Each structure stands twice: as C-alpha cells, then as structure tokens.
C-alpha cells in the first residue's frame, strides 16, 4: 500500500517545510499549497487524503475552505490549524466539517493522532475498486495502437519520442492522443494519467 498523502495549506513557507519534514519521517507524502484556492483547483485529480488547513490564509480563509470541502462532499477530511483556538472558533470549525482544531505550536503526538482520525474518515477501499472497474471499462475501448501510445504517455515520453519509438509521425501521435483522451473521458493530461493508473495501466 502506498504511503498516504497529506495536503498542507499554509501561506508560510517555513510551516510547510517543517510539516513536510515531520510527516515525511512519519511515513506520509506531503503536498503543500500556499492558498485554499490553489488546493481547490487541483482536488479533482488528487488522491483523497487528510488536509492540514491554516485558519488565516490570503484570499479564502480556512473556515471558508472547510465549507467548500463539505459542500462539495470532497474526500479530504481537514484539520484546522490556528494560532489561537477558542470555543466559538472550534464550534464554527466543527460545524464546517473539521475533524478537529489544533492550536499552534502543536504537539507532534496530537498532530499524528489527528491525522489518524482524519484517515479513518476517508472513503472505504471498495470505492477505489469501483473506480478501477470503471477505468478498466474505458481502457477496453482503446485500439491496440492507442493502448501503445497511452503506455508511452504514462511512462512520461513526449510526443516526439513516442513517434520515434512507434515509427509514426508526431501528427499521428497527436491524433491518437486526442482520441485516447476522448474515449477515456479525460479532462486534462494529468486526469488521463490518473484514470490510466486507476485502471492498473503502467502499474
């Protein structure tokens, strides 16, 4: 099983680096964002995981981000981080869907315990199985050549390199790539890679 991913949303570079180091030693992958908007812009293609969310952020603040996560039913259970925690704030945070509220500076044990609680709220593994079956059904619609092109795309090759390896033109690769994205229902290249990996392609 791959290491779980934790999403850190804090506009302080030092805080993000500190959490990356701490959580890395605890076996987590960490993705950092300096604003709520930056995080929300990528959630559709992100693996579900716990979120460490600062209250005070430029633009959308932590409470508003919590409300968006809850309103859109996004699978990212969030822990609110704040420099001051009082009862009214804690109540607002819980009403907005927070797992808990941690006051800075937090204790390592309290942070890891909160992350474990957040992980317990993630979707059940059978949801991933459903995504796998759906992705496999899309993969079955591809021709043999399209599957060849997809495999090289997932491996990270550029169109020119794929054309060279398969003995076809760059234009033909572009046509195959467009058809693959259409058949796989991919909104972007990163989304295409995610769907392919969910189908077990390139794993």
Provide tags for this entry.
single chain; 203 residues; alpha/beta; Rossmann fold; Arc Repressor Mutant, subunit A
How do you describe this structure in short?
With 203 residues, the protein is α/β, with parallel strands linked by helices. 53% of the residues lie in helices and 11% in strands.
Top-tier CATH class of the largest domain = Alpha Beta
How many individual domains? 2
Question: What name goes with the CATH superfamily of the largest domain?
Answer: Response regulator
Radius of gyration: 20 Å
Structural class: alpha/beta
Mean pLDDT: 84
- What's the shape? elongated
Number of helices in the DSSP assignment? 10
Strand-residue proportion: 5-15%
How many β-strands, per DSSP?
Answer: 5
Distance between the termini: 13 Å
SSE pattern: EHEHEHEHEHHHHHH
Biggest sheet overview: 5 strands, parallel
> Which spans of ≥5 residues are poorly predicted at pLDDT below 50?
none
Protein name: Response regulator transcription factor
Pfam family, one: GerE
Keywords: DNA-binding, Phosphoprotein, Transcription, Transcription regulation
Describe this structure in words.
With 203 residues, the chain is an alpha/beta fold. It has two domains: 5-119, 3-Layer(aba) Sandwich (Rossmann fold), CATH 3.40.50; 126-198, Winged helix-like DNA-binding domain superfamily/Winged helix DNA-binding domain (Arc Repressor Mutant, subunit A, Orthogonal Bundle), CATH 1.10.10.10. 53% of the residues lie in helices and 11% in strands. The protein has ten helices and five strands; from the N terminus they run E-H-E-H-E-H-E-H-E-H-H-H-H-H-H. The protein has helices spanning 13-25, 36-40, 62-71, 87-95, 108-119, 125-139, 144-154, 159-166, 170-184, 189-198; strands at 5-9, 29-33, 51-54, 78-82, 100-103. Helix 7 packs across helix 9 (170-184) and helix 8 (159-166) packs across helix 9 (170-184). The longest helix has 15 residues, at 125-139. The radius of gyration is 20 Å and the shape is elongated. InterPro entries: CheY-like_superfamily (IPR011006), Sig_transdc_resp-reg_C-effctor (IPR016032), Sig_transdc_resp-reg_receiver (IPR001789), Tscrpt_reg_LuxR_C (IPR000792), WH-like_DNA-bd_sf (IPR036388). This is Response regulator transcription factor. Pfam families: GerE (PF00196), Response_reg (PF00072).
């Amino acid at each position: 099983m791959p290491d779980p991913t934790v999403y850190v949303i804090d506009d302080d570079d030092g805080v993000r680096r500190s959490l990356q180091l701490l959580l890395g030693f605890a076996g987590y992958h960490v993705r950092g964002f300096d604003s709520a908007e930056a995080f929300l812009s990528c959630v559709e293609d992100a693996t579900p995981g716990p979120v460490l969310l600062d209250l005070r952020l430029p633009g959308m603040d932590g409470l508003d981000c919590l409300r968006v996560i809850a309103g859109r039913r996004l699978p990212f259970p969030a822990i609110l981080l704040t420099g001051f925690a009082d009862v009214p704030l804690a109540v607002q945070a819980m009403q907005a869907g927070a797992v808990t509220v941690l006051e800075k500076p937090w204790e390592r044990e309290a942070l890891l315990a909160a992350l474990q609680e957040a992980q317990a709220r993630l979707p059940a593994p059978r949801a991933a199985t459903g995504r796998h079956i759906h992705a496999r059904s899309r993969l079955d619609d591809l021709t043999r050549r399209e599957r060849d092109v997809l495999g090289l795309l997932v491996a990270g090759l550029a169109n020119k390199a794929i054309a060279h390896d398969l003995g076809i033109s760059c234009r033909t690769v572009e046509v195959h790539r467009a058809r693959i994205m259409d058949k796989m229902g991919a909104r972007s290249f990163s989304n295409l890679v995610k769907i392919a990996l969910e189908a077990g392609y390139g794993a």
